[in-house]
């Protein structure tokens, strides 16, 4: 009888207690390795995680990319432990929120004011509320993924406008139908499409990820900035994912394009919950014309973790390490795919490389890949959120040697030299998010 790991046993219980099984869509077992994924961890350190059976795995996914400095960072944890012992909530405000705001403005001189919160979805909603208040217009042009809130999902009410952003047919029951046509998606690097949207609609806000699956072409970001300025449109850069990976701050610094508002999260606290909305004073002051407030935005751990994370980042210049690791991995992928004769796409930003199997069996190949790598005690998918903890010869050699062995098997399956049934031992993984940029 096939042994089921403790994580899968708990996952089956979770799906009876929690709608969807967990709190984050992209961590659902069915998206990764149905019926076999570990699902839960007991502890972490550096580039490694331990499952509920106390087995150690190298994590080459770092899913959702929060821990760029590695899991369970000793300097950050030591600082947070001292903070916890002093108290994390009181009738008064924590002074760290002022220090963090000051630091973020110092890193981004174009911005003058900051609002802090705890999640990317919250940060996006705060930014949209402020932008709508400042512009006096409801309609928003978007490019990328910006969370689960009503304002964003409203793009899918009638026209399935988010099909190419996330997943086809994304359900939006519960989102007020009156919000339809308030959010209009556009494609990355398609400036003519965005220009047409601005001409045909009363757009008050342009909201986009700076870069994810592809790089800007033909001065795309500069053109977007000029279009927004010319039409008195508030330009928001969602850097919840891209921030602090390739620069000390937002990725927009690479392209020398300044928005009116920017958001940061994920990497900002190295695993601790903290997000930030920064912006120009004349825009951010409109937050006073609306009600934006939440109890746990005043909690102390997030800002304290962010301050120590920024300190460590600057000390080791992590934004130079991450793209170096990512480029090495993506280059090695190409060499391996070429050597085994398997045609795959490689894309993404240097610090977040991605690959995709091609053809009708792509999802099956992805399932087999994750399964075989898991048997080698490696958590792996088609995406790597590079971490400083990956910058290690032993770690990369272990990963890439096993990557070669696994992809070589998939190549033989693709060439009909091996029957796919020999290695497809679980249901095929479900489709994941699709990103417009």
Question: What can you tell me about this protein's structure?
Answer:
There is one protein chain. With 437 residues, the protein is α/β, with parallel strands linked by helices. It has a domain at 90-315: 3-Layer(aba) Sandwich (Aspartate Aminotransferase, domain 2). It contains 14 helices and 13 strands. It has helices spanning 6-17, 29-32, 74-86, 96-107, 120-135, 150-153, 191-200, 220-230, 252-255, 281-284, 301-316, 318-340, 362-375, 393-414, and strands at 41-45, 48-51, 56-59, 113-117, 139-143, 183-185, 203-209, 234-239, 261-264, 275-279, 344-349, 352-357, 378-379. The strands form three sheets. A seven-stranded mixed β-sheet has the order 4-10-9-8-7-5-6, sandwiched between helices. It has a four-stranded mixed β-sheet with strand order 1-2-3-13. Strand 2 (48-51) and strand 3 (56-59) form a beta hairpin. Helix 12 (318-340) packs parallel to helix 14 and helix 13 (362-375) packs across helix 14 (393-414). The chain is globular. The N and C termini lie far apart (45 Å). The mean pLDDT is 94.
CATH T-level topology of one domain? Aspartate Aminotransferase, domain 2
Strand order of the largest sheet: 4-10-9-8-7-5-6
Name of the level-1 CATH class of one domain? Alpha Beta
Number of strands: 13
Beta-strand content estimate: 5-15%
Our count of helices gives 14
- Please give the alpha-carbon distance between the first and last residues: 45 Å
Structural class: alpha/beta
Question: What gross morphology would you assign?
Answer: globular
Q: Give a short account of the largest sheet.
A: 7 strands, mixed
Mean pLDDT: 94
User: What is the CATH homologous superfamily assignment of one domain?
Assistant: Type I PLP-dependent aspartate aminotransferase-like (Major domain)
The SSE string, one letter per element, is HHEEEHHEHEHEHEHEHEEHHHEEHEH
CATH-scheme architecture of one domain: 3-Layer(aba) Sandwich
Helical residues, percent? 25-40%
Low-confidence stretches: none
Rg value: 22 Å
């Amino acid at each position: 009888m096939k042994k089921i790991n403790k994580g899968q046993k708990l996952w089956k219980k979770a799906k009876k207690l929690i709608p969807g099984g967990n709190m984050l869509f992209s961590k659902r077992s069915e998206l990764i390795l149905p019926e076999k994924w570990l699902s839960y961890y007991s502890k972490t350190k550096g580039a490694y995680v331990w499952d509920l059976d106390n087995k150690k795995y190298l994590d080459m996914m770092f899913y959702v990319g929060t821990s760029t400095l590695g899991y369970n960072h000793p300097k950050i944890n030591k600082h947070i432990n001292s903070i916890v012992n002093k108290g994390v909530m009181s009738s008064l405000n924590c002074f760290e929120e002022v220090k963090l705001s000051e630091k973020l403005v110092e890193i981004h001189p174009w911005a003058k004011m900051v609002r802090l919160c705890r999640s990317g979805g919250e940060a996006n909603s705060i930014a949209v509320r402020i932008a709508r208040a400042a512009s006096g217009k409801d309609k928003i042009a978007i490019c990328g993924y910006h969370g689960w809130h009503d304002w964003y999902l409203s793009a899918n009410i009638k026209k399935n406008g988010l099909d190419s952003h996330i997943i086809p047919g994304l359900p939006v029951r519960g989102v007020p139908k009156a919000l339809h046509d308030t959010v209009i998606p556009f494609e990355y690097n398609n400036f003519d499409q965005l220009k047409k949207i601005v001409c045909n609609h009363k757009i008050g806000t342009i909201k986009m990820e700076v870069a994810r699956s592809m790089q800007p072409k033909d001065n795309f970001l500069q053109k977007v900035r000029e279009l927004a300025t010319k039409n008195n449109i508030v330009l928001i850069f969602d850097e919840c994912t891209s921030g602090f990976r390739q620069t000390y701050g937002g990725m927009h610094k690479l392209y020398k394009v300044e928005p009116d508002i920017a958001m940061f999260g994920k990497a900002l606290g190295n695993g601790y919950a903290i997000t930030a909305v920064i912006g120009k004073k004349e825009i951010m002051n409109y937050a006073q014309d609306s009600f934006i407030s939440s109890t746990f935005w005043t909690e102390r751990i997030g800002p304290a973790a962010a301050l120590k994370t920024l300190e460590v980042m600057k000390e080791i210049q992590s934004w130079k390490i991450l793209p170096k690791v990512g480029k090495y991995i993506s280059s090695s992928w190409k060499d391996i795919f070429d050597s085994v004769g398997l045609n795959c796409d490689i894309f993404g930003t240097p610090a977040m490389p991605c690959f995709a199997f091609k053809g009708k069996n792509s999802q099956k190949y992805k399932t087999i890949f994750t399964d075989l790598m898991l048997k080698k005690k490696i958590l792996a998918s088609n995406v790597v959120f590079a971490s400083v903890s990956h910058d290690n010869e032993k770690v990369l050699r272990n990963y890439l040697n096993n990557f070669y062995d696994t992809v070589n098997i998939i190549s033989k399956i693709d060439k009909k030299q091996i029957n796919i049934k020999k290695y497809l031992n679980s249901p095929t993984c479900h489709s994941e998010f699709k990103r417009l940029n």
